[in-house]
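Input for the complex:
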Amino acid sequence: MGHRRFAPRRARKVQGTLVALCLAIALLPATTWAADWLPSWNEGASKARIVEFVQSVTDPTSKHYVPPAERIAVFDNDGTLWTEQPMYFQLAFVLDRVKALAPQHPEWQTKDPFKSVLAGDMAGVAAAGEHGLLEMMAATHAGMTADEFRSIVAEWLATARHPRFKRPYTELTYAPMKELLSYLRANGFKTFIVSGGGVEFMRVFSEQVYGVPPEQVIGSSIRTKYEVRDGQPVILRLPELEFLDDQAGKPVGINRYIGRRPILAFGNSDGDFEMLEYTTSAPGPRLGLIVHHDDGEREYAYDRKSSIGRLERGLDEAARRGWVVVSMKDDWRRVYDAGWE
Amino acid sequence: MGHRRFAPRRARKVQGTLVALCLAIALLPATTWAADWLPSWNEGASKARIVEFVQSVTDPTSKHYVPPAERIAVFDNDGTLWTEQPMYFQLAFVLDRVKALAPQHPEWQTKDPFKSVLAGDMAGVAAAGEHGLLEMMAATHAGMTADEFRSIVAEWLATARHPRFKRPYTELTYAPMKELLSYLRANGFKTFIVSGGGVEFMRVFSEQVYGVPPEQVIGSSIRTKYEVRDGQPVILRLPELEFLDDQAGKPVGINRYIGRRPILAFGNSDGDFEMLEYTTSAPGPRLGLIVHHDDGEREYAYDRKSSIGRLERGLDEAARRGWVVVSMKDDWRRVYDAGWE
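Predicted:
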C-alpha cells in the first residue's frame, strides 16, 4: 500500500478532483452545514438557539469563541436521549431479571418485593418503596463480574420489547437528539452522558446507539472489587450503592469524572436542575436546554405531576435562567428514527 | 472568509502543493514515523517492543489489529511520568501549604504532625504515620471550592522548586514518556493517567504538560458537595477520603472511569502491579511496561527496598508475564527535556 506510482494522466485527474473538493468546502456557507445536521428538528426558536450557540462558540473571530478542549456538552439519558415511560427502562430490566432468576430463588414466591414482581402486581412493587428497589438491585445487578453483567444487559437489550411500541428499547432513542450529538461532535464538542441510570448498564449501548464511548458515560454506580480468580483478573460487582448520579449528584459527578465545567447541558426533569444550573451559572457562553414531554400522541405527555421525570422547577425557572424549553410536539419533526411507520 | 476567489495562477500553485503533499505522505514508509516520535529513547529491546506493538495493533492487515476506540493506554504518574523522589511532589505541596497556613493556626506550633513540619523535622512527620498524613490532607486539600483548590495548586507549581534539581516540578517530567504519549495519540490511542495522586491536583497540569485532558485523569479523590452560594454554584471539597486509586484500586478506577480494559499499561512500582496484571491478562495484543529507576546519576536509583515507589513483585514477575522492564539508564537517551544542561 502506498508504493504504487500514479501514471501522469491519472495524477492529473486526482489533482483536479482534490482541488475541486477543497474549493467546494471552502466556499460552502457555514449555515448550510448546520441545517443538514438537524433534519429532524423543525425550524423555530429552539433550533435557532442551538445553531446560533454552536456557530458562535466555534467561530474564531467571535468574542464567544471557546477552544475545542473546553467544548464539553452533557446530556441526561432517561427522557432526554430515550423514552422513560411507562417506567425507566432499567427498571424493566430489573423486573425481567427477577422473573428470569426466580427458579433459582423459591423463597421469592413469598417475599416482597419479589413476590409482587412475579405476580405482576406493580402496586405491590411500588409499595415496597426504595428499600424494595435496593433489594432488587442487589439481586440483579451485583454478585457477578463486570463482564458477566455486560453480557446479561446486552442479551436483554437484544430481546426485550417496549410494551407500547413493541420495539427494542434502543430504538426508543430520539432521532433529533442523536442528530444533535453528532452535530456537536462535528463541531469539536466532546459529548458526555450524565444520568441517574447505572453507568455499566448504559455503557453497553451508548457507543453503538449514541456514539458516546464508555469513558464518556457518567452514571450511578455500585461498589466493585478487584479479584484474581484462577489467574484471571475480574471486577466483581458488590451489592452496595457507591454513587447516586442525580440532582446535586450530577455536578459532583461532572466534577469528579470530567474535571471541568460543561458549556452545554441538556436534561428533561428536575433531576437535571442542578446540572443545568451548574453549567449555565458561570461566565462565558453557556446553553441549558430541557426536553418538554408534551406529545402524548407520538410519545408521552407529562411534567409537573409525573412520578417519573417530574419537571416543575425547571419549567418555572427556565425563562428567568435563559434555558431553552424544547417542545417535543412542536420542535421535533420526528421523535424516533425514520422507517418506523 | 472562504468567499474570495483564487486567481488561476495562484490556484495552480496551490494545486501542485496539495498533490505533492498527498504523494509525500502516501509514499513515506511507516517505520520512519515511529523513529521520529521517540528520539529520547535509545535503540534497543524496549523501544523495539513498543514500536512493534504500536505497529501491529494499528495495521489493519495484522491479526493483532485493534480498532481505535479500544486503543486505551494507561499511565501511572509518580515515578512513571515524573520524578517521585525525594518525596511525592504532592507531599511537598502539603508541607508547603502547612507552612503557608501556619500563621492562621497558632495551635499547630504545639501539635503534631504540624509541629514537626514547621520545625522541619521529617522524622517526626513520618512518625505521625497515616493518621498524621490524613490530618494534613484535611487541613490543606479540603474546606475550599474545587476552583479555589485549582488556583492554589497552580500558584504552587509556578513557584515551588525541586530540592535537588532547583527546577519547577513540572520540568521533572520525563522526556521519553512525553514522547511516548504523543506517539500513542498519533496512532489513535486515547491516553489516560491512573495514579494514586490526587485527581484534582494532577488535572491542574496534565493537559499542558502531558497533553492529557482532565477527563482522562483518574486519581485518588476526597468527597465533594454541590452548593449554591449567593446564586453561584460551587463544588465544595470535604475532609473525607472517597477513593484511593492505588494497587487493587487502580483496576477498579479504570473500570469505573473508563469502562473498558486498556491494552497498554505503564507503571513503575508495585502500586501499579494490579493495573498491569488487569491490562495484560486478557486475550488479544497487550503490553505491560515498568520504568526501572536505575539511574542515580541523572535521576534516582531505587527499587526493592525503597519506601517510595517500591518495586519488588513487578521485578520478580515481569519476565514470566512478558512485561517490559525499561531501564532508565540504558533505554533513555535523556531523562528530562533538552536544554537542561
